From TrEMBL:
Transmembrane parts of this sequence: 93-110, 160-188, 328-349, 370-388, 708-735
Top-rank lineage group of the source organism: Archaea
Protein name, UniProt field: P-type Cu(+) transporter
SUPFAM superfamilies noted in UniProt: Calcium ATPase, transduction domain A, Calcium ATPase, transmembrane domain M, HAD-like, HMA, heavy metal-associated domain
GO molecular function annotations of the record: ATP binding; ATP hydrolysis activity; metal ion binding; P-type monovalent copper transporter activity
Family the UniProt entry places it in: Belongs to the cation transport ATPase (P-type) (TC 3.A.3) family. Type IB subfamily.
Domain HMA: 1-58
Pfam families attached to this UniProt entry: E1-E2_ATPase (PF00122), HMA (PF00403), Hydrolase (PF00702)
Presence of keyword 4Fe-4S: no
EC number assigned by the record: 7.2.2.8
Membrane topology, record value: Multi-pass membrane protein
């Protein structure tokens, strides 16, 4: 199947089979997924019904697993690549084209040699006529055969229209027109097959990412087996340059892994023991042993491919409009074609010359001329280019996004994302990394930064708080060794910790803890008109914090941990959930692309929210929100601005994601919940993909509109030109059918050239072509 009219023909045939409970037809992938009751019908009956519509069934459960033509893998199906130019249909077309060429040669150039060779019902047949009839037989019979199946299934589609036109033209002796129509339409069909096959290539590329085989450790030996035969819990070996065959966890080895096919990350990610890896990712340099965590059919890559395929079944508003319009368009133009062939010869007794805008036209009176013009309108009645204009754009956009780490779960979401007026963004894990890290180390007095980190990390060794993990990570990163082992460790609930080091009690905690110990921090925490930047926060000459030093850190939304004893301050360490490098540029780019409002929604406190909002440049922020209050915020944005996209983690923000027109989940790779709940999933933790997503969707909407109106416009112009003799059958086929089908497909393929660029160390800025 290569167009929706093909799918309708198959659908009508399947509807007559008792026992079929559901049928999903996808001409963009060339597949029909049929569910049936085995007590009432069989697979053979389903296949017979499809073949009764004129199509061949490839694959299926009875097919050999090693059949090269069977592209079904783990429930993911797509038509196999077509040998378009060497297929039986193509050979018949080339034969017909040769007959037409020779026929035209005898008809117009070698007229002296165009002798009569036979007669039928006293009608003389010349050499040219025989050649034209040969062309009709070679190229036209497949068209007429398809038209027969269309009539049988009561489907008013292009095959029925073209088959009728070929038979009618042949029947009245218009052999040139019949042969030309048969050959040109066959060539058009081949070109459409080729164009649709190109559109399917992007999905095939996704399927080819998944390795067919895996090297498994069994009984101490390496065994190469098909990937689908590997069970959860088994260990697979992945050498440098190999693709990782299945989702799993690294249990031995370390390497850089290119997981761009899954997450769209442009830079390989270092993997060591305990890290997750995904099927389809490429092991760059080291040896890895991976414990399998999901089967081949349940891997992240398989789910992505399956969802991309399923996404094409969710029709956009534009597709629904096109389906409704074509339901009226084709019957109307068919009626006009019949009237054009029948009425003018009855009402025009003699040729009539008229002047239209300075151009003279003659309206013929003979019925043969009007019959041909009626046939031409019959060709124009086919809405094929118009109907495929949206599906090919959706396929191109969705598969292009998937290859760049963005999973769009329906054409309707692709269209909706391109029309959003405001974007609501969660803070933690979206604009920020969602992990605490040390941002500032501020020693005072004679204490050095390393000494401060050593004492703090030594105390925090006994703590399980996330702040402790951040301080220990910073100490390790800074190369601070010989951490002391405190004794008498005690957690001071809500304040901090204390412990003895070398016989002296040290404290680490909030400024309030040290104020209770008798330290005066008012100078360091004095409110100012705007605060000072953290970089200006330096130690004072008297061994205390500089003026406003702590205030500057707190106004940036950072948590301040002071370290010291009961009599001496060693310094302060600031900890924060770091802003992603791409966040600021992503917000700027969304504004540049036309998004009216970008709003940050967070459950964090006012101070932290304000600091992050100022840093990333959002238009406004709303802090201290509970999940239901985020829903209220989204509804308020909808009332004020229009359509809203909500970006969150896919779990905690689920109510808000569901409320927005488009819900976008961050970091969905390997996360079942996020993949299932979001309308769109960013497979990697890369907020820089948001501008790319909006640009792709916005451009896709433009391409869809261009395709629809260009198809309609060309059809309208051709239809107007037919009655006045400006449009021939050849022009109707070459321009109205073949030309427009290739044009809308080529225009849709432009979407594959929109790609993210890097911003702030992450992929983000998009390139449009």
């Amino acid at each position: 199947m290569d167009c929706p009219s093909c799918a309708q023909k198959v659908d009508k045939s399947l509807q007559r089979v008792d026992g079929i409970t559901d049928a999903t037809l996808q001409p963009t992938t060339g597949t029909a997924n049929v569910t049936y009751d085995p007590d009432r019908t069989s697979e053979a009956d389903v296949v017979k019904a499809i073949e009764g519509a004129g199509y061949e069934v490839v694959g299926g459960s009875d097919a050999e697993s090693d059949d090269e033509d069977n592209q079904a893998t783990d429930g993911v199906d797509i038509a196999p690549p077509s040998e378009v130019w060497t297929s039986p249909r193509a050979k018949k077309t080339w034969l017909g084209a040769a007959f037409v060429t020779l026929g035209l040669l005898f008809e117009f150039l070698l007229t002296g040699q165009n002798i009569t060779v036979a007669s039928v019902l006293e009608y003389p047949l010349h050499i040219a006529d025989v050649l034209f009839l040969g062309a009709v037989a070679a190229s036209g019979i497949p068209v007429v055969r398809s038209g027969y199946y269309s009539a049988k299934n009561r489907s008013l589609d292009i095959d029925l229209l073209m088959g009728t036109a070929i038979i009618a033209a042949t029947g009245i002796g218009y052999f040139v027109e019949a042969a030309t129509l048969a050959v040109l339409f066959s060539i058009a069909e081949l070109l459409e097959d080729y164009a649709m096959d190109r559109a399917r290539d992007s999905l095939r590329e996704l399927m080819e990412l998944s390795p067919d085989e895996a090297t498994v450790l069994r009984d101490g030996e390496e065994v190469t087996v098909p990937a689908e035969e590997v069970d959860v819990g088994e260990t697979v070996v992945v050498r440098p340059g190999d693709k990782i065959p299945l989702d799993g966890t690294v249990i031995d080895g370390e390497s850089a892994v290119d997981q761009s096919p899954i997450t769209g990350e442009s830079v390989p990610v270092d993997k060591t023991a305990g890290d997750e890896v995904y099927a389809g990712a490429i092991n760059e340099e080291g040896y890895l042993e991976v414990e399998v965590t999901s089967t081949a059919g349940d891997s992240t890559l398989s789910r992505i491919i399956e969802m991309v395929q399923g996404a094409q079944a969710k029709k956009t508003e534009s597709e629904q409009f096109v389906d409704r319009f074509s339901g009226y368009y084709t019957p109307l133009v068919v009626v006009l074609a019949i009237l054009t062939a029948a009425i003018p010869p009855l009402v025009i007794a003699d040729p009539v010359s008229v002047d239209l805008a300075g151009y003279g036209f003659t309206f013929a009176s003979d019925w043969q001329t009007w019959f041909i013009r009626g046939l031409t309108l019959l060709v124009i009645a086919c809405p094929c280019a118009f109907v495929i204009s949206t599906p090919v754009s959706v396929v191109s956009g969705i598969t292009s996004a998937a290859k760049n780490g963005v999973l769009i779960k329906g054409g309707n979401y692709l269209e909706a994302m391109g029309g959003v007026d405001a974007v609501a963004v969660d803070k933690t894990g979206t604009l920020t990394k969602g992990e605490l890290a040390v941002t500032d180390v501020v020693p005072v007095g004679d204490t050095t930064a390393d000494d401060l980190l050593r004492r703090a990390a030594g105390l925090e060794r006994r703590s399980e708080h996330p702040i402790a993990a951040a301080i220990l990570a910073r100490a390790e990163e800074a190369g601070v060794g010989n951490l002391p082992d405190p004794t008498g460790f005690e957690s001071l609930t809500g304040k901090g910790i204390r412990g003895e080091i070398d016989g002296e009690t040290y404290y680490a905690g909030k400024p309030a803890l040290f104020e209770e110990l008798g330290f005066d921090l008012s100078r360091a925490r004095r409110e100012t008109d705007g605060g000072v930047m953290a970089e200006e926060a330096a130690e004072s000459d008297d061994g205390a914090f500089a003026e406003n030093a702590l205030t500057a850190l707190e106004q940036e939304g950072k948590t301040v941990v002071i370290v010291g004893t009961e009599s001496e301050l060693l310094g302060a360490i600031a900890i924060a959930d770091e802003v992603r490098p791409a966040s600021k540029r992503a917000v700027e780019r969304l504004h540049e692309l036309g998004v009216e409002r970008v709003v940050m929604l967070t459950g964090d406190n006012e101070g932290t929210a304000r600091a992050i909002a100022e840093q990333v440049g959002v238009d406004e922020y709303r802090a201290e929100l509970l999940p239901d209050e985020k829903v209220d915020a989204v509804e308020e944005l909808q009332a004020e601005y229009g359509e809203v996209a909500m970006v969150g983690d896919g779990i905690n923000d689920a109510p808000a994601l569901a409320t927005a027109e488009v819900g976008i989940a961050m970091g969905a790779a390997g996360t079942d919940t996020a993949l299932e709940t979001a309308d769109i999933a960013l497979m990697g933790d890369d907020v820089g993909k948001l501008p790319y997503l909006y640009d792709l969707s916005h451009t896709a909407n433009g391409v869809i509109r261009q395709n629809i109106w260009a198809s309609l416009g060309v059809k309208a112009l051709l239809a107007v030109g037919v009655p006045i003799g400006l449009v021939s059958v050849a022009v109707a086929v070459v321009v109205g059918d073949m030309g427009m089908s290739l044009g809308v497909t080529g225009n849709a393929m432009r979407l594959s050239r929109i790609a993210p660029e890097r911003m702030g160390g992450e992929t983000g800025q998009e390139t449009s072509a």
